[in-house]
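Two records follow; treat each independently.
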Amino acid sequence: MAKNLIILTLLLSLSGGAYFSFDVIDKLKGTIVALTIKHKKQIVKTKVKERGKRLLAAIPVVGLLAIGWFEKEEYDEWKEDNPDGTLEQYTNEMTDASKEVASEMSAEYCDDIGEYCHYIKDKMND
């Protein structure tokens, strides 16, 4: 009878251990699935961030190309009006025009700048 009790106790303990181990295995499977999903989301986020970085890196190149193209178009128009003009004359004319625009804009915002207005205007004229 004692043998039967020992066998029964061992059987129950093994059954209970198996139940708890299956419970732990199920929890671990759920955790693995959750981590896999989380990992996939992190991979997607990383890919999106990298695409954004590539896009931002490409914008300056595209912007520089566009600026160069627009400048060439403006130079060609200026060259039609000034067939004997040189590139140096064109750049001097554009520099003077830029200074005039900057001077006009600084005059508009001079009230906001305050006491440093004349200092900034003098620096721009230099």
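The next record belongs to a different protein.
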Amino acid sequence: MKDRTLLGVMFGILLGMVLAQSGNLSAQAAPAISCQESKTIFRDASRFSRKGNAAENMTKKHDEYTKGGWRFVDMETYIENSDLEGFFLTYSRDVACSQVGA
């Protein structure tokens, strides 16, 4: 009797696992196809007074691009003759593939 009960429990667990997986597989949507568009801009630090306003103005630019659907990707500093000249800011966003290069 114990063997039949144990066999029934094992069969039930196996059946439950199979049904759970088949439900997940049929509920998964096909991945959306999208492309990315990137943009790099230069922010001149000398216009913003290096010590006071460069970070504040960069934050304003981040907010502006975020509202436009862009996300911040990278920042590189541009130094010439040991002086901070500016920043290269790179932003990216997802677009429909038909819009790339348009």
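Discussion point: The helical segments are 2-27, 49-67. How would you locate this feature using only the token line?
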